[in-house]
Amino acid sequence: MSCTSPRRHRFGRLAAGLTVAAAATASTLLGATPAYAAAPVTTFVNGGALFIDGTVLGDSVTASGTNGTVTLSNLIGSITAGPGCVQLGAEVRCSGVTFMRFAAFGGDDTFTNNTSTRSVLNGMSGNDRLTGGSGNDDIDGGRGVDSAFGQGGSDKCAAENESGCEV
């Protein structure tokens, strides 16, 4: 005759069920990517203005090009083409650009403008490193310990560390 009671069987099944549920939850949580981590830097052109919107994490965006065509890359994450831009693998190329606006939103960001196109760069929160191009730039580090580099043209800067800024 067995000494196993129905209560002991229920406890054993409950423990086994909880173990399976815990393992499934752990594998889901460990394998899941947070929704914000997948968000790319977004770009679009409107009336000659190129808008570059960063993420809540740190971004490292570089702009290069001439004659109204700007190519953008993000060394840390992805970048996505919107209206007026085309996706070229990990880069975005935008045409008809006469002005650039970069908004970092959050994290420790780097933006480098390797063009002569006028730009407005806003680091917002985080410790940012913002570099204007050879044209006239307006660079505002926002909150955090930021660095602004004017490079050329007549540049207006607001940051804890400034170089090449005339205003």
Question: Can you tell me about this structure?
Answer:
The chain has 167 residues and is of the alpha/beta class. The chain is 16% helix and 37% strand. It contains 1 helix and 15 strands, in the order H-E-E-E-E-E-E-E-E-E-E-E-E-E-E-E. The protein has one helix at residues 6-31; strands at residues 41-46, 49-53, 60-64, 70-74, 79-81, 85-88, 91-94, 99-103, 110-114, 119-122, 129-131, 137-140, 147-149, 156-158, 161-163. Strands 6-7-4-3-9-11-13-15 form an 8-stranded mixed β-sheet, with no helix packed on it. It has a 7-stranded mixed β-sheet with strand order 5-1-2-8-10-12-14, with no helix packed on it. Strand 6 (85-88) and strand 7 form a beta hairpin.
Summarize the structure.
The protein has 167 residues and is α/β, with parallel strands linked by helices. 16% of the residues lie in helices and 37% in strands.
Secondary structure layout plus pairing:
Layout: H1 6-31, E1 41-46, E2 49-53, E3 60-64, E4 70-74, E5 79-81, E6 85-88, E7 91-94, E8 99-103, E9 110-114, E10 119-122, E11 129-131, E12 137-140, E13 147-149, E14 156-158, E15 161-163
Parallel strand pairs: 1-5, 2-8, 3-9, 8-10, 9-11, 10-12, 11-13, 12-14, 13-15
Antiparallel strand pairs: 1-2, 3-4, 4-7, 6-7
Morphology: globular
Strand order of the largest sheet: 6-7-4-3-9-11-13-15
Please compute the radius of gyration using only Cα atoms.
25 Å
Distance N to C terminus = 93 Å
- Strand % is 35-45%
Level of helix content?
A: 10-25%
Structure classification: alpha/beta
Q: Secondary-structure element sequence? A: HEEEEEEEEEEEEEEE
